[in-house]
Fold these 2 entries.
Entry 1:
Amino acid sequence: MLTRKLFRTAWSYKAQFISMILMITLGMGMFLGFNMEWKTIEVDTGKFFDQTKYADYRLYSEKGFTKDDIKKISDIEGVDAATRYLSVNLDIKGEKNKSLALDVSEDFNVSTFVVTDGAEYDENGSGFWLSDKFAAANGYKTGDTLTLEFQGTEIGGEIVGLIKSGEHMICVADKNQMMPDYNTYGYAYISPKKLRSVLEEKIKSDFADELKKSNVPEEFIDDSIAKLFVTDYMLTEATDKAFAQINLISGLQKETLEDRVRDALGRTIMVTPKEDHVVCKESSGEATEGKTMGSVLPVLFLAIAILTMVTTMHRVATKEKTQIGTLKALGFKNRRILRHYTSYGLFIGIVGTALGMALGLGVCKAIMSEGGMMGTYFDMPDWDAAIPFFCYPVMAATIGLLTLISYLSVRRQLKGSAADALRPYTPKKMRKIFFERFRFWDRLRFGTKWNIRDLSRHKSRSAMTLFGIVGCMVLMVGGLGMRDTMSGFLELLDNDISNYTTKINLIDNADLKESKALCEELGGDWESLTGISLDGDTVTLDIISNPNSLLNVIDEDNNRISLGDDGVYLCLRLKDRANIGDEIEFSPYGSKDTYKAKVLGYNRSVMTESVTMSDALADRLGIDYSVSSVYTDKESGEIGSSDLISGKQDKAQLMDTFNSFVEIMDGMVVILVIAAALLGIVVLYNLGTMSYLERSRELATLKVLGFRNRAIGRLLISQNIWLTFIGAAIGLPAGIGVLQWMIVSLAGEYEMKLMTGPLTYGISILLTFGVSLLVSLMVARKNRRIDMVEALKGAE
Amino acid sequence: MSIVQFKNVTRVYTSGEHELKALDNVSFSLDEGKFVVILGPSGAGKSTLLNLLGGLDSPTEGTITVNGRDISTLSDNELADYRAATVGFVFQFYNLIPTLTVYENVELVSSIAPDASDAKQMIAEVGLSDHLHNFPSELSGGEQQRVSIARALAKNPKILLCDEPTGALDSETGVMVLKLLLGMAKNYGKTIVIVTHNQSIAKMADVVIRVKNGKIREKYEQKEPLSADEVEW
């Protein structure tokens, strides 16, 4: 019988019940959605890494690795599997601005791929296994032929399979590209046998060139002659040099592995753990970013929902007081009544949480699915949503808490005898408030006094309304501000840091003299990126020569730095490593040399953790380096071919990838802002309705006295507008604070400076006021239907 | 001269398929400056009658003319203006605004009534000058009802409508409040209509209307009404 009463009571308080369920749904949905997002990244990428045997460590050597080297590495205790590996960026013949990373994994037990269409991997195969996303974006299919340009020679073959690879799960050309762009860049694998034949062709072609240079008539230079001169030794040497990388699977600590590699090979080798590899680094960075987002804003959602529930449940319980008294008078035991009313909270908790789970899954899928926002970022086969374990206790605790809230609200009404419980709820007596001691009080209009005293009389309701508005504002400023900051950062990158038109990537270990000559010819700036060890951590040494200000370095305040020649600059992420004036010591990988340099200042690095210095200082210290990229204001078409050039990227193209990244951020911000507005509407409507019901007797009295509906509506609206004003005034700085906190939390990934504009503040204030006004009007409209006669019956 | 005229007034309330005729073809008129008591048991229709007269409700059929104006067809806003200017209410449970002080509760009406009296003077007349800045919850029931009377009269209405004004008070306080109410109404020349089931109050009235089952059973004038002190309570 009481169960029937539960549903009927729920129906009679439908506005409150629906509001409470919606609030929990929204709160839980946002909380679960954003937390599921990062967990899904962790689980699905982890699964894909396992599936494709993503390497735990990568060893790099400019000289390459021999068969003997790989055997020694494989024999190291603690190394489970190892392969010689090659990954080189090559242009596609006949296609403008399209390039591929061509990979070869000698032993297909490490750094492999999964085939989505076509033939399985064959170590003796002669075709290409091409990225399925690149194929889809460019209209390639199995059976088509593909030709790549490799230092003057061509690598051609049939596309035998379409694949996905863990090594290229985030398929970017280099660390400076933020988002994959499959229209212009992808990856492909060939077998080691195919690599050997390519190298053989390359040796023959180089040999033929040499013959031509030696004035040997062309009719004598044919394939069979060249073939005679290609020895196994030459081929092995070329292969060894090509395999500049060893990928291995091992659970060893980095330091231990470094020691064992050094002992095994007799030289220091640059060991990069997977955490420093762009794919793992970016995906775990994305998960960290998700965790940061998930730990602030959605928690705020849930907190607002739960706190508002406290007030609402208390009000429902007070409204039910006489019914509670009736049940008590009928002989129902307190325990049974408590159980009955407590089940209200349990019901709301279970329904709200269940709907929240569905909403959370929807939010997660909107972000993390092949067709979702992250669909362009991650290239992996499985997109199964995963939920962090702590969400289960949070869900259980929320249901428990809601049940407890009901329990406590009802227990309060059950105190005393049945006669006490039968008496209607008496609101708190009115006392003079703080402001009444001041003179200005007497000059206030009655409506103002009425509203101020009402706010003070119903403190918890007022506080919850204020909390709801502050929360709404924080979520909007936080969400929109994050987008501003990200866009501002990209604008900074576009206008202040990168002034070039084309970035030219040079081949590994390009000759320094020739590189500088090329740079001079193009009137450009250049940059050299080398891995160094700083206090045992792998960071990038960024040597820059920028006389033409095409590539710039900026400081903490986003002002350009003119690089001094007597010291280095640490990126902001390394700020805690040394003070200005201190000396740091670092060692380039693959070298036993250590260098010392004074810290001149700190710079804002775009992507990598780096130590930046001028070329003059690098030369003075005697650091051995090669130019990685040349930056020029010439269009890519104007740049002639050169053996030094491995690829060219238009700045516009690079910026497009950044903009795609901002689009993802936009999507998340839209979800957040819509959810914030919805939550604001639900919270304010619920509390507004409560306020209206609590004051219905007073409103009816005003109506009886002769106040018009509009005047009474104004009274109701003005209270909400005041609260919105106060809420916005608190919410704006609070939102900026939360944003700042998020930026600090994300500092490990991006060196961003908080950049929010008046537009964000304006939109946030406007939306918050809009929500508040909308809800106030909705509530004020109820006033028209107030039954004066009914409302005036009985004592307060 | 008639200040109130009910002509064939019917008020039907519908609840689902059920219809309840609270007033059934009622016609009567009241003269200005009279003290009228409407008597009847619970559910007789007396409160409906008062609500229609006060502009809180509109008749299903018939016309109600107050001070020469038909109020049965007024819009919401026109009814609000009518209530603000023409009638003053005193309720059984006082209906003061709990978040306003005594002074503010009375002063409140000055913003809507076109011919409002001075709030402080009205409060002085009900003997509550010492409680100007008290909240209703700090006053006794009798004191609250006195504030309610001051508020009703501060609008300077033509008619004072009272719904069981002593119903929530003990008899001694009730008599005191009634004396005050009648005294002030007389002083200011107001027509006063009290709805009650208390027969004793009827002995003080100039006109008594008895209502039962939505119809007027009896309407009579008393040539020599008793004073409050003469009535046996």
Entry 2:
Amino acid sequence: MERDIRVRKIKDGTVIDHITAGQALNVLKIIGITREFPKTTVTVAINVPSRKAGLKDIVKVEGKELRSEEVDKIALIAPKATINIIRDYRVVEKKKVSIPPKLEGVLKCANPNCITHFEPVKTKFIVERKEPIKLRCHYCERVMSEAEIVRQF
Amino acid sequence: MEFEGRDIISIRDFSLEEIEHILESAARMEARMGERLDLLQGRILACLFFEPSTRTRLSFETAMKRLGGEVIGFSKAGAASVAKGENLTDTVKTVANYADVIVVRHPREGAARLAAEASDVPVINAGDGSNQHPTQTLLDLYTIKKEKGRLDVCAAIVGDLKYGRTVHSLAHALAMFGASLILVSPSGLEMPPEVLLDLKELGAEVTAHNSLEDAVREAEVLYVTRIQKERFPDPEEYEKVKGAYKITLDTLALAREDLIVMHPLPRVDEISPEVDFTGHARYFQQVRNGIPVRMALLALVLGVE
């Protein structure tokens, strides 16, 4: 039986591989692929057998290279993901996502009474655990769970 | 150990050794309370109270004056430039030009950390929303250490463990010192899961009880907090809960002889007044201990202790 997944190669764009199984749709939200997104080909594979992770998700986006804050956000829900930048059918750049020890200006605090919602200040979160992600607001000290983080995307 | 110029924002910022250092310094201050001290003569404390407080503000003002210093400030946001629309950062930056140290109380969580970042002079958090109140925690620890001679006690914490800001930081600090904790709260006001996880990571032995009686039998320290009426949608439910968690002479009949009862005050009716006359009551000594602890903190951050 043919076990390989046959998905057409993309000419220019990004392939996000090794996404934690089940997180592909959240990755689409992070990179702004919604119904309103300009016409482009997006391929999503969910629960693909993987030798390392058991199962993984893959997202291929034609005509889009990711910005660094998008990569940071992907790291939060898929810490083992790899980002492949494709130009003219070739991988010109391949990088693993990584969670920095501090996240600045990327997320909003889930605590509605946190001072960051009322003062002109960039949010800041301390990464206390990478997998599953646990962030603590530098200001109000409230812990944000993965569910609260995903809700923001 | 360097304290000069340091902010006092959260108990989480301090190591065990640093907390011990503050408590030792407070003990030295207490020993000199009868003297006329001039350690902070010529220094100015600014008290910025964006929400009302009696005890904490008066206690800081007393501590500063007992050290020979001066106090400026306001005690409600309406009187401040905030009423004209000024943000916290600008208010703090301005006041940092007038004072040598700033004490802030603010209704929003995280306000004290932000104030500290805006200020060139040390900032002490006197309560930021439901987050932290580190000087209360330090005076609670000081009281337990003074009464019991150690901090690895068996402490029962009773009341609203969900929203009460003092109980989260107290439980964290006691866990750091190896205390075992008995948590007693009405259903729906239990300690939040992230705080429990934090206590577990610190290696604390934590048990949860719904019954006050079991906790009173075991504990060496009974820390009682107020259960606020506004937390209950149904007033009848509140009345039931209030009665079940009230400390009376009957409750204490089950207690160890050396049990001490603490409360951050103000109390409403969680502790019956007749308990005041028993050998267990320590809440008024506890409030008094706020002075040497705050004297120590002011002296430490201003580099004279």
